[in-house]
């Protein structure tokens, strides 16, 4: 595999806007007098001032209220980039708990997006299903990094319905799914566990036909509710690829170095920990 992995970092984006006054600007005009008597009489009487409300100011204010929605950024551990190794060396066919051996629990519990969201939807170009992600804990108010991995794992572990299996587009696709199923089951070393897994049949993860390496998420356009006209849950594309059989020592070194740098940024900085902007 060619070493294309460049150390590319995505900077965060700040959307700035000027404060909007609560009321339109008011311009006042008054007629001045030169005589001292007129000046004295004006002191004793209320001044006659004409109030002019600027239509231009009111129009500008109404326009400035059309503030765009804040940009949602995906956590750097989940962000897809075609130019570098993904920070999480995770395979979707394995339990997400394996990630805790190289990523701290505190980092995995961080919000999956900035600003945080209470739910998000993930789709994959190779699959026909959507995966809805919600907080795994009732006490949590937003989706975390580990919530995303668990939702993908659980969603891909669901058994495929016979109708879905028959809907595969070609005999070649059927053969590829079957091969992925047997390959996944045969990867279990224990004979009893292997037989139990085979008895559960083909699962959604087999429809990835071996492309189980998690590459990250990329932002989709916002979906809207036709009746209410408001955005629904934030949606992302899931990117995967076939796992490499044996990465080179250079690739392993780059991956370990990148994870170490990310950990340092997370634990040693007070700035937001979302270094990759969503597409």
TrEMBL record:
DUF6699 domain mapped to chain residues: 90-221
Record Pfam families: DUF6699
InterPro entries on file: DUF6699 (IPR046522)
Region (Disordered): 28-61
Biased composition regions of type Low complexity, renumbered to the chain: 28-38
Source taxon at top rank: Eukaryota
Biased composition (Basic residues): 47-61
Record-given protein name: DUF6699 domain-containing protein
